[in-house]
Amino acid sequence: MIVIFVDSKNLGGIETHILHLAKGLNQFNYENEVWFYRKYNQGHPLEEQFKSNQINFSYLDGSLTSLLVRLAENNVDILHSHGYKANILARLAKIIFQTRVVTTFHNGDLGQGKLKLYTAIDLITSKISENIAVNKEISNRLHNKCTLINNFIDISTAKISSGKEIAFVGRLSYEKGPDNFLELAKRHKELNFCICGDGPMKNELLELSPKNLTFAGQVKNMDAVWPKIELLCITSRTEGLPMVALEAMCRGIPIISFDVGGMSQVIEHNYNGWLIAQNDIETMSYYLINWFNLDSRAKNIIKNRCRQTIEASYSSKSVIPQVVKLYTKLISKG
User: Which end of the chain is least crowded, N or C, by CB within 10 Å?
Assistant: First the structure.
């Protein structure tokens, strides 16, 4: 029995990851369920997708006690946590109950203020648990005392996109660089740009937005949106290995990205996408125009390379066995 544990109220990279983890474990016939630390508002945006994919989930009451009680009531083999708060709580559970704990480090951003403090506690206490890092940069931060396992997605139902929009998909916050994307849209008023996401910079971006840039808001399920997208731009200032990159590439959507975090793991420059020096809007603009100048044959070659990259190294089929191997190793220790 594997429990995926997270404290979350919105939909982002971590949430997309746990959806694909639960789906992948189901496909390999491993019993699992998702525990949310607490219920925010009317429930989590993932509820519909969990139900449609027959993924069991439930909510705790937002206290360590409720986690401990739930663990006492269930025969849990592995508690697999995601995000700094869930990681810290899971390690406390290990100290109290000797629960087998695996934690995944997703975020390339160390944060500011309280977030920076919590992130530091997460790192300091990481020696208590078995740890997974989703890219080399995060692995180095953990002094390599972790298992490096790629982010992954279920590609079984993903179809090649024939869309025409240039998209930004992510939280509208400074570290994700939506302002860089807006600047790109301003430079190419003959093209259609779209932002999918919400966050603290939304109002600022709306005020400065050119007419060729539309805002889709927070999208609960991107399945209906990906077919409209032709090219994804990742304009982040800091990054891990974003799930949106894998979601896009498995659909044959190439990426022009700043060379941050783990992007160089998945993108090979001029082969299946393009890597640009951080904040170099001028060069990103160049490769944007270069893409639209390619003929359909050249575009299809790159689209197929994107799909092949994900299938080989970032699909549930290729990665879930690595996760299960770590679970098995931990269980064998007793």
Answer: C
Residue with tokens 């050249």: 298
Q: Is 280 in a helix, a strand, or coil?
A: coil
Task: Please answer whether residues 167 and 331 qualify as being in contact, where contact means their C-beta atoms are separated by less than 8 angstroms.
Answer: no
Question: Does one domain contain both 147 and 173?
Answer: no
* Structural contact between residues 242 and 234, judged by C-beta atoms closer than 8 angstroms: yes
68 and 174 co-located in one domain: no
SS3 283: helix
N residues, the chain:
334
Number of structural domains (the chain) is 2
Judgement on whether residues 181 and 248 belong to the same structural domain of the protein: yes
CATH assignment at residue 69: 3.40.50.2000
Can you give the residue range of the structural domain that contains 245? 165-313
Rounded Cα distance between 206 and 1, Å, is 46
Is 160 a member of any domain? no
- The per-residue pLDDT for 312 is 93
User: Tens of pLDDT along 220-267?
Assistant: 788 899 999 999 999 999 887 788 999 999 999 999 999 998 899 899
127 φψ region: left (φ > 0), alpha (ψ -120 to 50), beta (else): alpha
Q: Work out the pLDDT band at 190, boundaries 50, 70, 90.
A: very high
Euclidean distance between the first and the last CA atom of the chain, given in angstroms as a whole number:
15
Backbone CA torsion sign across 23, 25, 26, 32: negative
Residue 212 DSSP SS3: coil
- For residue 4, list its beta bridge partners: 34, 80
